[in-house]
Amino acid sequence: MKNLIADINKSFENRVRLGIMSILMVNDWVDFGDLKDTLDLTDGNLASHITALEKEKYIQVRKAFIGKRPNTSFQATKEGKQAFQEHLNALEALIKGM
């Protein structure tokens, strides 16, 4: 029997990372504040999950200034989009396999 969970990506098992990637899959760039508000997270919680996804090269971080205010925004990388789509496909296969 095929292992139905073998293709599920551990990087996306956490609900916060799943939420971050879901948002980044359908948006070009999303800033820190919007992610934080949409997912109802603290700064530190969001930052730790962003760091984990960045370490895997699933997201790209852009730091800039808008006027005199710093602005950090995020985008899913090509690799991140592919990995997330494969994760979704594995979940779908798991559901259909049951």
Break the fold down into its secondary structure elements and pairings.
Elements: H1 15-25, E1 30-31, H2 32-39, H3 43-55, E2 59-66, E3 69-76, H4 78-97
Antiparallel strand pairs: 1-3, 2-3
What does this structure look like?
It is a single chain. With 98 residues, this protein is an alpha+beta fold. It has one domain (12-97): Winged helix-like DNA-binding domain superfamily/Winged helix DNA-binding domain (Arc Repressor Mutant, subunit A, Orthogonal Bundle), CATH 1.10.10.10. 53% of the residues lie in helices and 18% in strands. The protein has 4 helices and 3 strands. The chain has helices spanning 15-25, 32-39, 43-55, 78-97; strands spanning 30-31, 59-66, 69-76. It has a 3-stranded antiparallel sheet with strand order 1-3-2. Strand 2 (59-66) and strand 3 form a beta hairpin. It is elongated and about 55 Å long. The chain starts with 14 loop residues before the first helix and ends with a helix.
